[in-house]
Fold this sequence. Notes:
Elements: H1 8-16, E1 28-35, E2 38-43, E3 50-57, E4 60-68, E5 82-86, E6 91-97, E7 105-111, E8 124-125, E9 138-145, E10 148-156, E11 169-177, E12 195-200, E13 202-203, E14 210-211, E15 214-218, E16 222-225, E17 228-236, E18 245-251, H2 252-261, E19 265-266, E20 275-276, H3 299-307, E21 315-316, E22 323-325, E23 332-342, E24 348-356, E25 360-367, E26 370-378, E27 388-391, E28 395-399, E29 404-408, H4 418-423, E30 429-432, E31 437-440, E32 449-450, E33 481-487, H5 494-524, E34 562-563, E35 579-580
Parallel strand pairs: 12-21
Antiparallel strand pairs: 1-2, 2-3, 3-4, 5-6, 6-7, 7-8, 9-10, 10-11, 11-12, 13-14, 15-17, 16-17, 17-18, 18-22, 19-20, 23-24, 24-25, 25-26, 26-33, 27-28, 28-29, 30-31, 30-32, 34-35
Amino acid sequence: KIDWKPPAEHIEECIMKGKSKTDCQNYIRVLARKSAGVSLVCGTHAFSPKCREYTVTDYGIRNTRQFDGQGISPYDPKHNSSALYLPGTNQLYAATVTDFVGNDALIYRKTIDETAANAKSANIRTQSYDARVLNAPNFVATFAYKEHVYFWFREIASEAIDNNEESQIYARVARVCKNDKGGARPANERWTSYLKARLNCSLPSGSSPFYFNELKAVSDPVDAGNNDHVVYTVFSTPDSDVRMSAVCKFSMKKIREEFDTGTFKHQNNAQSMWMAYNRNEVPKPRPGSCSPDSTKLPENTVSFILHHPLLHRPISAVSSPLLVEGADRADLTQITVLPRVKAVGGHNYDILFIGTSDGKVLKVVEVDGNATVIQAATVFQKGVPVVNLLTTKDNVVIVSSDEIASLPVHNCAQQTSCSKCVQLQDPHCAWDSSIARCVHGGSWTGDQYIQNMVFGQSEQCPEGIVVREVFDDNESETQPEAVSRNVYSKEYSTMTVVLVAAVASLISLIIGAFIGIRINRWSASSEPHRSASSTSGSDYDSFGRARLTRHDSLTTATKVDHGFVPQSKQSMDATSLVMSMNATHHPMSMSQHGSGINTPSRDKNAIVTSINQNTLPRDYKVKKVYL
């Protein structure tokens, strides 16, 4: 047991600065094994980050060293940070913040061994307070791959501010070279290889894909064969009434190719649009590439990378999302992979374990680009999200904010018939006809094993083909239950998303009609009130929902009839459902998806609300409804 508490005076000082007593404790945010018996531990330490090295001796665990953890551990225990320790170089890569209020985000490399002669010179970071480099990021994961270290995060997209001055969140992947030494002075403590790109996880639909922009979880690279590795990721839409989650797969080979050869994104000034930088004007050697000695790079190359770290083209997923969970299901929160599990017949399959916001773990297998949920287990109380997942050969470790649990990676023995065993579509499990049991195997030698990974049915079973049983997630108990729920990416189109939104909007319209009748009756027996106005200059809130603004008039001479306008077949984007029947008005896309193109402006006078020539009272609210 290690007992590491902040001194009482540090806690008191933290509270005096406005933080709660709960936050002013020591939360461990970095834990790494340096060598046999030596561990590196870093914590928030009452908003004054500290690191320690603990050594296991014959007399117990001893604190052998303590040093400042600024730039390694976040100050706030709630901040999303990430870190990676590389034993070979004794260097720690951290993605966090380096100030009390959390405004100075950075990607930082620190040499841990203070006895090294070049320790200080090897410490490199991103430049401070530069939105082109990092803009209020939430870091998700960090890992090393070949000669680079990759950082996965989400941030405010500087290139995607719309005409209402409202920001958007984009998913990013960034990388640096392991051998980056910084540039020549004055850039000697700055990365010369830092590049970043947008990640594209979306449902295709013509020219207007449905984007999942917020990255939530990332797996380690998984060997995919063909000299490539893949990374499985969890994305979600922004917080809204129709929130959705998705699992997308990215190729490390494609990511490397884009970083090595892609076009840079450029903005001439703060008012101009972001555009692709002219390839002929990019200095050589190519900015962002690894150099044997980065301190000798030309000044124009170093200057270019400091001002143009963003690539122009997004990096797209290998295919459409493998799994999409709609608004009626819990959010997906974490993911880990058990790679290349051998099935009967010799084929290998990646098995995904996915955590949810309501304390469940889904076991998912990818078969020919489609995802099949083969098991769901309720691990924690409903409402307690899974915050981390780890896999071993035989177990999956599930972590919440307060608990740690472990489950076996398979439950073959629970299936009592051939059809139910085959129905799992689990490469771990097959029906052994020689002993009439559902068994777990590895080599699968012999012809007595019955398994069907594609259809989950087999005529070899004595009971023949059995119709699948419907599984209700809400009826899952604390013990794992078998479930086979095929989720084909082709079945999830933007139309599906629109239909879900339509149901929610229709309910809102019915409620709105009822309220409108009540208002109409009220206004007939009341004196006119002054018109209400918004204190904000924006027509839409942060989730794209319309709100009343000071320049929206609520009074007209006659009552305006409203009707439903059919959605444009050329676009699957959101269109206005409430429009004046008297005015010429055509559906218009809410946004132009893709690359920071501004939302088209609308004529505010074309959407008018009137109730018997009276304005609405201040205690009523009016919303424009969009689908």
